[in-house]
Each structure stands twice: as structure tokens, then as C-alpha cells.
Amino acid sequence: MAAASKGEDLNVAADSANGTGVTEPDMAKRIKIAVDSLGTFTAITYPAAKPGRASVSIVLAHGAGGDQESPFMVEFAQVLAARGLGTITFNFLYSEKGAGAPDRNDKLEACYRNVVDAFHAGAFGKDFGGRLVIGGKSMGGRIASQIAPGRDDLAGLIFLGYPLHPPGQPAKLRSKHLPDIKAPMLFIQGERDAFGTPEELRPILRGSRAPVELCVVEGGDHSFKAPKSAGRTPAQIRDFMLDAIERWVGGLK
Q1: pLDDT of 38
Q2: I want to staple 11 with a disulfide (CB 3.0 to 4.6 A). Which of 32, 34, 92, 199 is the partner?
């Protein structure tokens, strides 16, 4: 049992991860998180393969177009764990139910807050402790950023394609809250991201009070796919991103 935010009761139960058709490490487990006023959603834990290498755990949330078992999310969680960074993913309530459209912001934020609260309450077990970095792919990273202001229990935030604005609507910025985040931030952004290019992000990030690093995937779009002319394979782009995360996490103070 972990204390939930805003008076909501949070119940956590663990089961072995199986029967999903997704290849997961032997030690991966499914954690059911029940928030009485909202429903139940699932987290999957990927313990670090090299315990003690880093006293940092990472929570990554999926984007609007998938769930935590999308190939992108599973691969990133597995490789981060293999590199010694224990990683937790989770479904938002709508994706847990198989619904197509994301929930309202308040429900998305409630899910993320409860995952963070569960972590700090020790609900994910002895393999997950120390400092916590949160973030996610696209919408998942945006929601992480929206719950971060005012919190002192975060070591940092990682954004894998921050959705600065809807495609073709550069005036509708989703950045007002970013300067209020106190923790260090790592933005990994595709050079051709229709949701916000690195050039669009740079002037906004200059206003941050926290340390910020912007890592650009040359030729990459919002899914980090680059044309052949960019000269890098998808595997090379993935490793470039994971190297950036590993290096950045290693430099956190």
C-alpha cells in the first residue's frame, strides 16, 4: 500500500509478466496499481541487470499512439535495464482499457503521480530505489513534465520527442510550465519533429531555471525515423539515444 495523491487510495499487487506475446526479461514483473476513484492500470518493471551500477531508477510513460508494450517502449526499457538502469513503464487508464483516445489531462496526471508515489513508497520492490528520473515518449513525457513543478523528489526528467505543439500549429505551445521544473532535464528531439523542432525548443529552454540538455537526432522525425540520406540505421539511432541517456544519468548530481 502506498499513499496516493489528493486523498486517493493506491493499492499495488505484483504478478509475473507473462502471456502477452512480448519478449521480456525473466525478472520483469507486472504491477497492478489501483486508484479507487479512477480504476486500475498496470506497470511493468525491468530490474537493472547490473545492480549497484547506478543508484537511479527511471519511469517512462508511453505516447498517445501506443501503450507500454509497443516495440519502442519495450526495447528502450529492456536496453536501459541491461545497461544498469532499472526502468518502470506503465499504461495510462485509457490504454489499459484499449481505448483509442487519451484521457483528459487530469486523469493522465493522476496516473503518473500515483506511479511516482508508488515508487517512493517502495511498491516496486528492492530492485527499485534511490533517485528517480521520470519522462516518456511524446505525450508521456509531456505528462511527466506537468506533474514535475513543485516536486522535490525527482532527480531529473527525460523527454523522448517532446510535443511542443500540435503539428502545423506552432502557436499552440505546451511549454508554459517548463520553467517551473526544478530538476535537470534531457530533451532528445528529432531534427524534423513536426511536434516541435530543436530550433523551436531552444529559445524556450533558455528560460529554464534547471540544467537542460538538448540532444538532436539528425534527420529524425517525431518517431526518430531518419531518411537513408542521414547515413544512420534505426539501430544506430537507438544506440545514439540510449548512449545520451546513460551519459546524462551518469552525470546527475
Answers
A1: 82
A2: 34
pLDDT band, very low/low/confident/very high, at 253 (cuts 50, 70, 90): confident
Specify the CATH number for the domain of residue 187: 3.40.50.1820
Structural domain contains residue 183: yes
Work out the pLDDT band at 129, boundaries 50, 70, 90.
Answer: confident
The answer to whether position 22 is within a domain reads: no
Residue 207 phi, psi (nearest 5): -85, 5
Instruction: Report whether pLDDT(11) > 50.
Output: no
Q: What percent of the chain has pLDDT over 90?
A: 77
pTM: 0.88
Q: List the one residue out of 204, 112, 108 whose CA is nearest residue 165.
A: 204
d(CA 211, CA 30): 34
Among candidate residues 160, 119, 132, the one with its CA nearest the CA of residue 57: 132
With CA atoms as reference, report the closest residue to 218 among 200, 241, 201: 241
